[in-house]
Amino acid sequence: MTASLAKGIEMVVEVLMLDKIVLAGLAVLAGGGLAKGIKSIRETQRRRATAPVFDDGLTESDFRASVDQAVRKTPRVVEASVAGLVVAITVRSSSGLTKWSAEIDLNDYGHLTGRYWIRSENSQSPIPQHFAHELTAEVERRRNPRIADPTVTGV
Q: Is the dihedral of CA 55, 78, 44, 123 positive or negative?
């Protein structure tokens, strides 16, 4: 065997070893990503399964009234239903021919903290985000009347 052939074989072996190392690294990264994804799904399930806690600062009735107010302030939202701290909305398309839905999840381990998660059939639309913003603002106004009317004192 000539020196150049031996050198060529050696280079091929090095490339194959490098490919194996790269593939092993990718497998580790993919496995880590999968594990994070599973952990994230489980954490979301745990967060959503926590029963909502309403208090004197904001009753369940106040929350439902806040949802109704957000519906009135958000164009093209034609319907909203409430299940705990999760609000499902139905949105009329801009053409008016179809409807699509979105879900605004305000259940932060049973508490209404202002954080929310959105799932939407139309990821390009800003309407669910706008609705969530209106809803959280309305909830805050009901919790703190001075936000709604700065002249209110002693509350």
A: negative
Q: In this predicted model, what pLDDT tens digit does every residue of 113-126 receive, in sequence order? A: 999 999 999 999 99
Q: What is the pTM of this model?
A: 0.71
Q: Are 102 and 113 in contact (CB under 8 A)?
A: no
Nearest to 69 by CA among 61, 86, 84, 149: 61
3-class DSSP assignment, residue 107: coil
Which residues, other chains included, contact 121 with Cβ-Cβ below 8 Å and sequence gap of 6+?
A: 100, 101, 102
Rounded Cα distance, 100 and 35, in Å: 32
DSSP 52: P
The CA–CA distances, whole Å, from 64 to 17, 41, 80, 123, 140 equal 62, 28, 10, 25, 13
